[in-house]
Amino acid sequence: MASYKAITALVFEGRSYDEITGLMGCSRREISMVKKTIAARSLTAATTAAMSDEQWAELFPDKRRSVSDAFIQPDFAGTLKSMKSNKHFTLQQGWRMYVGLDSALPGRKYGYSRYCELFTEFVNTHDVVATLHHDPGRALLVDWAGDTLPVTDMVTGEIRKGYLFVAVLPFSGLIFCSAYADMKQDSWNNAHVQAFEFIGGSTQIIVPDNAATATHRTVKGDSARVVQVRYQELAEHYSTAVVPARVRRPRDKAAAESAVNTINKRVIGYLAEEIWTTFAELNAAIKERMVEINEQMHRADGTTRAERFRADEAELLQPLPAHRFDTVSWKQLKVGRNYHVTADYQHYSVPYKLAGQMLRVRLTGGNVTIFDGDTLICEHPRKSGRKGQYSTVAEHAPERHHDLEGLWTRQWFEHRAKSFGPATVTVIEMILDRSVIEAQAYLDCQNILMTLGKSNKQRLESACQQIVNQRGYPTYTTLKRIMATITGDKKQSHPLVPAASNTKSPPGPADTPSVMVRGADYYKDR
């Protein structure tokens, strides 16, 4: 007999047929019968929660033949406990122990087939069918949530998408979620690292969907897929294996789909109306929501995800390695005249005396390490999110920029801005003044003067004047947008006039009032 109480609770949660069958192991016919009963009797979640076992039995009577008292009843609770604690314990072992049991009680014992049927009924009526579908500590199911959350940059006003990575342990249902700026390989791998650290260990296998960051086809049109190299390196580091979900096999990833549905309702549904300005701020809010999902939400069997995880799964996870996995890449970068190197559109300072030199830069998920040959120069936390951010160490800056030949200075940019006009000078001064360390603004000033103003001095001056008049926040992007608007307005404001004739017309008398013109007779005798 199916657990109609648990099915009813899942129906009120809005779960789909596939989700309920995946969680409960019941048939679609049984779910349909529950829905019809709810509609016919106008049941609500509140009324069903207050119902007694007798009322449930009356609502969904068991019409099958009762088990005869002539049979000795097996200890199904003990068998289930053995299966949960020992992943190698089988139902056949439980039956053999039952048959071999010496009992003073009179009666017969069930055959293996009937024993299995009764055990399945016992499991269904005790809301633990999901326990048997997944071994504890064996699998971690991972996927991206389909919906995103917006992250607004307070400086530029740019709105970026926050992509939510979701990982779930299908045995206990424990869920991990975090937001990332993209769904590229580095974010994908970093999300797995954080998920393993969240659960405090690694599982025997990882089950991803067939995302491009997980697997790829070696031959176009071939159904065979190969795990991405960097993803495989991560799996080997954590002593786990990547086993992608089969295509068109929704049951392979039913727990992941259920977790994503929970994230959509309990995280995105709660946070979508808020304004988030950084990914750190957004992830802090997501972490609070995850505490409620894992620690406070009770499931059909009365336990929380975290309680079941700590009781039956945590100790079965593989221990984490001594060092976390990190993807490393190397670049040869030239130090700019503002004594910063630029990697992935972010800027990192070095001692100013290294300006103009080529340095070796090591990029990992969390740090940027800079070397001069084999000598370590400095290390910065890696920037992410909005492009053009600066990481500047105060000791790297010179005391007086203008005393160092070849370096940009405030006077250097102000002098160049004067050739454009007073509004451009004002904008350059605003950009220089707002930086904690003045040199951080040098590259922005250079881009504005040499890129936007290279062949458009007048339009750049007009755009700067608009910024000054409106008391705006000048950036390269803002000025470029205003200049494009000015260009569009000029194109529309030119009146349409007929093209001038190529034939020259002789000037009329009115055109030359003070000129004496000789007639043709004057030239006849010459």
Automatic annotation (TrEMBL):
GO terms for molecular function: nucleic acid binding. It comes from the Bacteria. Residues 490-526 are annotated as: Disordered. PROSITE patterns: INTEGRASE. It holds the Pfam family Mu-transpos_C_2. Residues 132-313 form the Integrase catalytic domain. GO terms for biological process: DNA integration. Belongs to the transposase IS21/IS408/IS1162 family. This is IS21 family transposase. It comes from Cryobacterium frigoriphilum.
